[in-house]
Amino acid sequence: MNTPATPFKPNPNLAPGPWLDAVTWNTQGLVAVIAQEFGSGDVLMMAWMSRDALLKTMQIGEAVYWSRSRQKLWHKGEESGHTQTVKDIRLDCDGDTILLVVDQKDSIACHTGEHSCFFLDWDAKASTWQKSLE
Amino acid sequence: MNTPATPFKPNPNLAPGPWLDAVTWNTQGLVAVIAQEFGSGDVLMMAWMSRDALLKTMQIGEAVYWSRSRQKLWHKGEESGHTQTVKDIRLDCDGDTILLVVDQKDSIACHTGEHSCFFLDWDAKASTWQKSLE
């Protein structure tokens, strides 16, 4: 799954079209996006895209999300420098989730400075979530 | 990320507690869940869990989701046989997404019979989503 037959190439001239309507947008006009690291296969984060965000991502080849907290387009890394270069884009069976395979700049996806946002691991003995040592 | 230091073990006696409140439940009382295959690292599917679904998953060690279409608990594989045995559970930085690392029975996660729900790949030449040959 991490080695797409046809590597993704951005297309600055890509326009909205049936491909964009093929996505199942939720009532907020968003689609869930899972970012997975190319090569390692690590799941880095989950975020959301609007139609404009997905179009922009396709055009520039870097992940652009919709920030629900700031209610605007969020070009990932625009402030931190931790951009995500798209290697592959996949859509799931019912169209409501996108899998974005990316090269993660500096290997840091999380705003906390962690590699992945999923750094809290279940600790069965303590029945709680603990920061992973990985 | 695929080799947790402490392998997950189900706990039939686990009760609701602060660990369950640590999850950021959305307005529908749900949390997004990404299922990733243990070993391969393939992202299999995205689904949702309610509090009851997460508790049940922890108790039995198999993925139990909340079916939004059927509005009830959905023990994945209860009809198809394609159960998911939990190997690791992780929570993300803001608590609103869970990463479930699983052994996928029969290697089939999707209701279409595909290995992963993410079998539609972006075809840049045709500007459309095409079924992946992988």
The H/E string of chain A reads HEEHEEEEEE
**Annotated CATH homologous superfamily of chain A:** Phosphoribosyl-AMP cyclohydrolase
Please write the CATH class name of chain A: Alpha Beta
Q: How many strand units of chain A?
A: 8
Largest interface: A-B, 53 and 53 residues
Strand content of chain A: 25-35%
Q: How far do the termini of chain A sit from each other?
A: 23 Å
The global form of chain A is globular
Uncertain residue segments of chain A: none
Quaternary assembly: homodimer
CATH architecture of chain A: Roll
Strand arrangement, major sheet of chain A: 2-1-6-5
Number of domains of chain A: 1
What's the helical proportion of residues of chain A? 10-25%
- Helix count of chain A? 2
Mean pLDDT level of chain A = 94
Structural class of chain A: mainly beta
Describe this structure in words.
The structure is a homodimer of 134-residue chains. By secondary structure, the first copy, chain A, is mainly beta. Chain A has one domain: Phosphoribosyl-AMP cyclohydrolase (Ubiquitin-like (UB roll)). The first copy, chain A, is built from two helices and eight strands. Chain A has helices spanning 18-21, 51-60; strands spanning 31-37, 43-49, 64-67, 72-75, 84-91, 97-104, 120-123, 128-131. Chain A has a four-stranded mixed beta sheet with strand order 2-1-6-5. In chain A, β1 (31-37) and β2 form a beta hairpin. The longest helix of chain A has 10 residues, at 51-60. Chain A is globular. The first copy, chain A, starts with 17 loop residues before the first helix and ends with a strand. Chains A and B meet through β1, β2, β5 and β7 of A and β1, β2, β5 and β7 of B.
